[in-house]
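Regression report. Comparing outputs from two consecutive submissions.

Submission 1:
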Amino acid sequence: MTFFKYLAVLCAGAASAALASCDNELDVQQSYEFTVETMPVPKELAKGETAEIRCELKRSGEFADALYTVRYFQYDGEGTLSLDNSLVLLPNDRYLLENEKFRLYYTSGCEESQNFVVVVEDNFGQSCELEFDFQHDSGDNASDADLPDAHYPIDSLITVN
């Protein structure tokens, strides 16, 4: 008889623990971590030259009501940043991102180094910061067009069978 009493007490304890931990509210995760990945950008820009910054939002989960905004702050140099829809961004103003893949265009406005931070934020208070640094391209470096044509002897070619 003691085995059945022990079993009954064990079942009653398990049932009460299971019922005590349940609630009637559905727990829906709304906030997911995210990052923004970019393609490589040039290191130097001449005044008036524009660099394309290709960006992709990478989310760890999906929530239909998640909204993402972008803003920037330039702390060295002068230039303008615009979205792929030609909208020129004002520093520290937030702009709604309509797609997970987007492009930013930075146009140099000076003949010195330029540094700025782009911040992508969601409507749950999470953010991702991207820092960009461009040196002034004075045009003094020799480009590929200025280099002589390279000629290689035939015997340096490798044949693959």
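Submission 2:
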Amino acid sequence: MISHVTRFINLNDRDFVIHPKPQDDELLSSWLVRVALANDAAATSFTNMHFREYARNIIWQRDLDIWCPQDLMKRLSEKSHLSKEQILDMTLKSYEGKLQEHINGRTRTRFVQPLGNYCHIKRNGGLRFCPKCLKEDIVPYFRKTWRLSFYTACIKHDCFLHSRCPTCGSPLVIYKHYNERDFTFCYKCGTDLKTAPAHTINKLSYGLKAVECLLQILSEGYGIKFGKKVASIDFFHFLKQINKMIYLWRKTDGVFEHEILGDVIKFNTTTKNKCYEDFITIEEQYLLYSGSCFLIQSDSNFKDFIQNNHILQCHIYKDFR
């Protein structure tokens, strides 16, 4: 039985009794929930008892995977006997210097889907999942790459990710539990996320190649921009600008001709919010990155795009920041 008792139990100076090993590419929040459940405690109760300076569920009111401060990382390291490097590697801060120069949680992080924190509620579908991955896992867990904006499809199973419960539409809140079940069940309605329908993608779709390419650039720290090797930060910075041209400027002529799903997925450019990626469907986001990745790889592709959409050279770097 999962214990929710926190009153009068102070474990601030105690190590974790049981501390499961982090899985490959696991998110810090996913691992910490698994640690709590391994110790027969709800995640909120567990962290309130072990981290009195972060009591009243403060840890879970933030986006832990971005926000996690240095002192909390140090405490997690000491209590779990993992190195600080292992703790850091589970956070999205580990992408600092490759995805964005600074990742601190105080400002929006490019290419990371926000959770939309509001007290204990996650309003956005910022945490995604592949039902096939969760089903195949010996130890189910949530991946760091699933938080990336461009990681819209599982390149292992060639299917779209889900961002919400397929039954009730609620975003994932993995530290909350439905009838004491683990986080592979929707906290609100109890649906088994492992049984969510997997919408298969044609293996010939360029979008799958784009996801794999962008992951490789993030991993290696450099990419090919218009045929030239550049640092990954510069690559992703300009990729964001191309996304803006395509979506916000509605420059879509010839953008999806290379993509076999270009005529299958409806690409709606009605959202004018600068945070448009928070509102478009995961299929639209998949198509967007298929287009922008195709354009940035080749100088000739980009020149055709500029010409087809009548974009002036002086406008290419408009509002570029």
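Expected: both submissions complete independently.
Actual: both completed, but the second showed a warning that disappeared on reload.
Relevant detail on submission 2: Residues 28-195 form one domain.
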